[in-house]
Specification:
about 250 residues, alpha/beta, 60s Ribosomal Protein L30, Chain: A, Alpha/beta knot, 2 domains, six-stranded parallel beta sheet, 10 strands, about 35% helix
Length: about 250
């Protein structure tokens, strides 16, 4: 049974300041928790008896058998599943990011948790292991983002930095910087690289000017002549761009 204090603790992790203070985050759902149990250190796990029985050896500091009502009270989902768990935040290092050798995504002020979660899934799908984010990008460990990643957070490392400073440093190392612009070259005609940094901008404002000034490889996703839409969702644009980069390398 889940105690009131434990439920209060889980619910408190909806706030970033509490996640940072405790060094933990929440994941829930049968597949999601199963996927990341092998990648993140689990502090606490509450699940139905049937789920626990199906897992075998569960690596967690504390395991509590809970009923449906317990999980519902702790859950952030409209339709909770059989398990909710608290994991320790990973200690990923920006030094492990090697854009001179591999493709890296950079996110400039992405605010929507669903967009961020989807982009993490896309990075996983297209074989991109690192995402570098501006400090004002949504937190990858908020419950909504974790849920939207569908387990891909276990395979993609997300780093938060002063993005303009980081990109300036990479530019001095001759790392190619790519970004989408209305005055860019059509991506299907553009010579692309198997390494470098692909910068995606804020949902409403795009890439901010100080970062745009650093990007020499300017891309454009063409539209149909009879188009009605004014723009693409940033996650959809990321999918198109990553797909084209991958197509050139396989």
């Amino acid at each position: 049974m889940l105690s009131k204090n434990k439920i209060k603790y889980i619910r408190s992790l909806e706030l970033k300041k509490n996640r940072i203070e405790n060094g933990t985050f929440v994941a829930e759902g049968n597949k999601l928790v199963s996927d990341i149990l092998s990648k993140f250190e689990c502090q606490f796990l509450a699940a139905k008896e049937t789920w626990i029985a199906q897992q075998g050896n569960i690596l967690s500091e504390e395991i509590v058998e809970a009923d449906e009502e317990d999980i519902r009270r702790a859950s952030f989902l409209n339709n909770p599943q059989d398990v909710i768990a608290v994991f320790k935040l990973p200690q990923w290092k920006i030094e492990d990011v090697k854009p001179s050798e591999h493709l890296v995504l950079a996110l400039d002020g992405i605010q929507n948790p669903g967009n961020l979660g989807t982009i993490i899934r896309l990075a996983d799908w297209f074989g991109i292991s690192h995402i570098v984010c501006s400090e004002d990008t949504a937190d990858a460990f908020s419950p909504k983002v974790v849920q939207a990643t569908m387990g891909s957070l276990a395979h993609v490392e997300v780093h938060y930095v002063s993005l303009d400073k980081y990109l300036k440093e990479q530019a001095t190392k001759q790392v190619p910087l790519f970004g989408t612009f209305l005055d860019g070259e059509v991506i299907y005609n553009k010579e692309l690289s198997n390494h470098g940094i692909i910068v995606m901008g804020n949902e409403g404002n795009g890439i901010r000017p100080e970062i745009a000034s650093l990007i020499k490889e300017r891309l454009y996703i063409p539209h149909a002549f009879n188009r009605e839409a004014e723009s693409l969702n940033v996650a959809i644009a990321t999918a198109i761009i990553c797909s084209e980069f991958l197509r050139r390398t396989i």
